[in-house]
Amino acid sequence: MAIFLTGLVLLIMIFGRFGNVQPIEGTLMITEAVLCPMPPTTASCDTGTPVTLPYNIPARGSADFHDLRFRITAELDGLKRPLAIFLPRVKRSLEITANGTIIQALEPLETRQWNRSILVDINEATAPENTIVLDLRVQGFGQEGLQLWPVFLGPSEILTARKILRDRVAIDLAVFAQAMSVLLFFGHLIVRRALPDEEIHLWLAASALCAIVFLTHFTTPVALLPYPLWTVIWTTMPALYVLFLLKFVTRFFGVKLPMIEASFTLLIGLSFLYAATIMPEGYALLYGAALNSTNIFFGTVVLTTFWVHRRNMGQGTFVLFFFCFCVPLAAGMFEIVLTLSPTALTPLSLFHLAPVFLASVAIYLFISQLITAMKTSKARAGELERLAEEIQAELALSYETLAREREKSAIDKERSRILLDLHDGVGGILANTIAYIDNHGRGDDVIRASLSEALRDLGLMLDGLENSHSLATLFGMIRERLEPLMNDHNLSFDWQVEEEPQIPHQGPSHNLAVARIVQEAITNTIKHANASSIRIYTQQDLVRVSDDGRGFDVTAEPRQGYGLMGMRRRAADLGIGLEIKSGQSGTQISLFLNPQTV
Fold this sequence. Notes:
- The protein is of the alpha+beta class.
- About 55% of the residues lie in helices and about 15% in strands.
């Protein structure tokens, strides 16, 4: 498909004949001339051969030198003066003589007209009559051919405007493409330095440098170096240009073509060394044509790579890239056709427009990467703003939590101080009073039991303070403190702690509240159930106290001293579930520490 489309573009260029010579209104277009025998003499053109312009000698594999003279005789009746001669294109060095006066000197062969048109004014002294005889002497080498296109005679004003128009296409566009290539060269180097991982910009910078050197041939009529060496250099540039574009495409798609790249590099290197050192000077252009004919194959590889990987890029991107690579390849093939064609197809070369199309690819990459960077930057800015808001919210929550923790810590410290004061003060008084009763045998048993219960309750508060992170340990201390009381009532204690109970919010106050519910359940059993055993069973989310006593009616109004209302209130404050079941077989009080299990 890539070959087909490229061939289609080439056919359009060939049969479209862009820039072909057309009559200019108000001027005389001369298409007939006489080819004079050489060496020239005054009467030699009388026996010359009539020819039709454009006259074309196609390029051949020869270093032969061509030196031809054409004579044109024209009537100037009806033409507005001052007059001028306009030639759309000449290959390659031209001398013009008007009525025996040289008005355009023969330029050295190193000075290339190449893609330039020629405009020469004719003064009244040169053409005082209505008839003018023009002798056009054209010189060139066989390796690049020789051409003479139709000659226009007419008003200088009209032909000057036409020359400006043609030079804009042939020269100004080349200057524009060269300036664009300079900007792209430095632009790619800057991007490459900023993004070392983006290798594609290195190869695009190298291709832009090749375009700069190559376009110098179209923008400057004088060779920058000795003519043969300069010809070898600038004719090598298109092949290097294609090589670097091949490297760009393979890196762009992540494709590996090491054999093709290595063979193309070796071909260019060996060809250049041969042309610069061994090859005869007269074959420089022939070398360039032969080397650049290989661009057809390697350029097709580039287009085929685009076609194969077209699904890896957007449709618009693919169309742009494929078109901008297809047209330059067709233009290169068209240049070869122009050089080798036996007939002159058009005086306008299109190959200098190739860098303009390929520069569009580089500009598109710059713009797309800029847009991507802007989108990424905007997305990152939004993400950073969102993260900042989250961090700010987390910090506010942390400050609030820290404030609560500090307040809670201060309260716990104050509670600890009060409890220790109670222990040392009230606890000591209670212990001394009980000891006094026991030692002297005085006092009421009810008072002694109340004092003992108060002392146990005070001890429970201290136990809750010292064991704020373990309910199981706190339950064990309750058992130890209540065990003498249970022995007095002939109660056995069944202790089954399978897992450490975990309440939603650990802390001295919460653990103490759970312990008080358990203590209240045990105390109620001792006082009212007439039971023989008490069983405590724990899991991670369950604490259960059960006995084998006589039970009670749970739905009845609570009697004073049962403390069921206090147990329910504590459970509600903690956010845990409380379930009380009672019957003839005993009472079961269950604490569901995880509300979901209620």
